[in-house]
Amino acid sequence: MKNRRKIIGIVILVCSIIQGYSQRKQWADTAVVTQHEVTVKGVRFGYTAKTGTQPVWNEAGDAIATVHYVYYERTDVKDRERRPLVISFNGGPGSGSVWMHIAYTGPRLLTIDDEGYPIQPYGVKENPYSLLDVADIVYVDPVNTGYSRILDPKADKSQFFGVNADIKYLAEWLNTFVTRENRWPSPKYLIGESYGTTRVSGLALELQNAQWMYLNGVVLVSPTGLGIERGGPVAKALRWPYFAATAWFHKALPAELQQKDLTDMLPEVEAFTMNELLPAIAKGGSLSPEEKQAIAAKMAHYSGISAGVILQNNLDISTSFFWKELLRDRGYTVGRLDSRYLGIDFKDGGERPDYAAELTSWLHSFTPAINYYYKNQLNYKTDVKYNLFGPVGRWDNSGNNTGLNLRQAMAQNPYLHVLVQSGYYDGACDYFNAKYNLWHMDPSGRLLDRTSFKGYRSGHMMYLRKQDLETANEDLRVFIKQTTPAEGVPAKYAVD
């Protein structure tokens, strides 16, 4: 009797394991296809939305994780081979692709006001500026973001959660996706935002070298440092143009600067930063008291922070302190990712804000919109929680050479161009550091003619401001048009 019960127990356990594996395998590879229409730039057209999951396999061919995606394809296109494909990632590194998906390039737009603030009722509407008129788009949620999950509890998480591990498995995943959707002949573009710029910069080279997939363009939206060294005086000095832009927005600069337009004022601050501030900070304690007073006065002139406070901090004003200090006398803090946003702290004293005013605002509007959109318009129904920010453990940042990898990919592929899009009020990935990336990922300057920079009067997610949403999408259209070569034009270098 005891043996019989033991055998029955073992059978039940085995059946449970098999059933669990079967359910995981089934969930790993799914697709729901829906039909829609949208009007972009005055033209109405149809498109399909394929929402689903595609596996990540180990070397034995077992599905160890599943990556969620949404793939939009315009339906009235006759020549799919010439139709560009845009592959979109957000950042974090633990963030889903929700941000650019329903606020920037996708066919649906979350409900917010013209400056990006939440309004009710929550939801989505048509995006009249979507990129879908000129390119098909896939939005990808890396493992543990969005609806993507690890399926095998015994899987080594280090193969997902690190700069180079992330790039490696996603390159394999993209190979499968492009093959399944028959998009190998298409001109291909990667677009990444924030940490997503680290991801796509590394993917550009990994796709070429490991998957033999060559790109036409990489778009870096609010780029990170891309592994390019900038410590010490360089890091301290490069913040100043961002400080000036934010102070200008909040009318905290002297009248002579305040009366200028933002983009007329910033070149003056950039020149001061590189030609005066950087050398002064590099001198450290060897700077004479008179020189220190003079440079502090100029720093105050361009930042809205008093010279006395700057001197108290040895000419080193951190971004977190700036967010607290700039409007301290008015009782407000300014946002990290978008310094147009205001916060109210428990007390005016202190060295950093209590919370991120801008991120709180964005989560307010994005969370209900994306959950509503998947279930009610894309017909994707699941009890799995959508992770706007998911658990990715201790991210391995070692070996981050993504900026130099992007340069190498450009050198190997004459077709490949890079576009940088930055908001002037972004204090996390500021616009002047984005320019510094371009200068130092290719210090020879030989590839500068294949790079371009666009700045916008908003923050990290510059597209949340309606005017910048329209302009930035148009900049993407121009970039795609300019980087799609005419038929028969070879990818080669020619000696002058």
Automatic annotation (TrEMBL):
Which GO molecular-function terms appear in the entry?
Answer: serine-type carboxypeptidase activity
Q: Name one GO biological process term.
A: proteolysis
Is Ubl conjugation there in the keyword field? Answer: no
Pfam families, alphabetically? Peptidase_S10
What is the protein name given in its UniProt record? Carboxypeptidase C (Cathepsin A)
RNA-binding is among the record's keywords: no
Return the PANTHER family for the record: RETINOID-INDUCIBLE SERINE CARBOXYPEPTIDASE, SERINE PROTEASE FAMILY S10 SERINE CARBOXYPEPTIDASE
List UniProt keywords, sorted A-Z. Answer: Carboxypeptidase, Glycoprotein, Hydrolase, Protease, Signal
Domain of life, per UniProt, equals Bacteria
Which SUPFAM superfamilies does the entry mention? alpha/beta-Hydrolases (SSF53474)
